[in-house]
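Feature request, filed as a ticket because there's no other form

It would be nice if the structure record came with a short human-readable summary line next to the tokens. Right now we just get the raw output. Example of a typical job, pasted below so the devs can see what we mean:
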Amino acid sequence: MVPIVGEAAKTIDGIAKAMKVTFTEMLSTAVTEDYPDGPLHFEGRYRGVHILQRDANGLEKYVACFLCAAACPASCIYIEAAENTEQATFSAGERYARVYNIDYNRCIFFGYCVEACPTDCTHGHGFEIASYNTVDLIYRKEQLMAGSPLRLSAPLLFSHCVRILCPLRWHNTSKKPRR
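Raw output as currently delivered:
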């Protein structure tokens, strides 16, 4: 009979601790954000939409090392490298990313790509990328470069170009099918 009383005492003690936490949280004041009226405050380790940084000379910091694509568990980064030449130098390294695409439909924002980058060029805190069209969430290098005029208008431009190039994919689904 003594073990049953001991078990009952442990159970009552656990319930009392849980209720204490519940009532403490119920009586405390709620913490709210002023978003969208005020700025959001992110933690320092928050990883958001990429911004490909430039160095002090205006060259791309990204040197096409492919470490970010290799570190990504979702395989959402696609890169094609090209060699810098004397006539056209895009980055400080031997190579540069001729194509750098990231598919935010697949991205899970782990931040492994940012941690793997040896030149610290892929980081950002943007989060407002919601879209009704999945093509708008495939960002190209031109959209991701820091200081690029395409950063704001490129999703719309890109989806418009894809709709022209691939008209069968973007047929009007609001009409009822013919019978």
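Something like this underneath would help us a lot:
The domain at 49-165 is CATH 3.30.70.3270 (Alpha-Beta Plaits).
The chain has five helices and five strands.
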